[in-house]
Every structure is written in C-alpha cells, then in structure tokens.
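Posting this for the archive.
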Amino acid sequence: MVSRPADYPFVPKSNVHLLPGHIWGIPLRNGRSACGVVVAVPTAEEAPHQAINSRTFAAGLLDWVGDELPSPTAVDDSPLLNWGYGNIKMIGENGGSILGQRSSVHDRDGALSGVSHRMGGAVGLYCDGRMVRVATADEARDLPTIGTWGLTYIVALAERVFVDGKPVVR
C-alpha cells in the first residue's frame, strides 16, 4: 500500500507519496498560477520504454489558470493539455507543492496518446502515463512521441500558453 502524508501542502522528495490526480501550482511570470497534475506514477512494467525510478512520474499541464493557487475543486473539470515524464524536482524547484488531489486525471478523449519512439523494436502506445499496447504502424508513424520533460519545461509550457497566448506544443 502506498503511504502518503496526512496533510497538504507537501513538497515531494520521491514519488512514493504521489498519487494520480495530485495537483500543484505553477507560478507564472505575470503573477498568476497554472496547474500541474500527477498523471501517473508508473512502474517499469507499465512504462517499459521509460527510465523509471523513485523520482520519475508522468506530469501533466491542465487547462487552468487563476489568480490564486489551484484547488482540487477548481481544476476538477479542467482538461489535460499535455503530459510527459519528468523528475519529482520539477514540482518543488519551481516553487510548487502538492496542494490536494482532484478526482479525475485521465485524458478523457484519448487525444493525448503518443508513442515511445518511431521505429526499431516494438513501439509502445502510451496514454495517461502508461503503455496500453504495441502501436500499429500507422500510430508509430503519425502520433507524437512522448517526451521527457526537464525541470522547467512545464513552467515554459504554461507561460507559452497562459501568458504568451501561444498554442500548446506537443
């Protein structure tokens, strides 16, 4: 059973206490906040093409921005804009902490599915941070590859969308 801290907020040091749906605020340069979400904490079996360890998780950016920090109820219906694998440090080193847990975390329409790589061996089809099956040849060719996000990538993506008004990069 996964143990978790009794109280919010907390800054995670590993993925042991992370649960899908955990949210954190992403401070933006205009003084507002965006919202990150834990999409998944996959095992090596669930994400065989990724380097999974105690600091890796699938992070997502929600379609939400506000003048205050996000709350689980405020972001519960916010769709996922993009997701990728990252290090737990992306939360705390960008001024965030886990604020609570929203009830829904999944990409509702599957539009954010991606593939592990293009060719050479079995290409995995990923959705919500986990491999769901081997990709077809068309999927391997046409779907975007799932990225590994650097520590500040989610901040740059949020500022691109919510401050600069540019489209989401996939």
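The first helix runs from residue 72 to 75. The longest strand covers residues 56-66.
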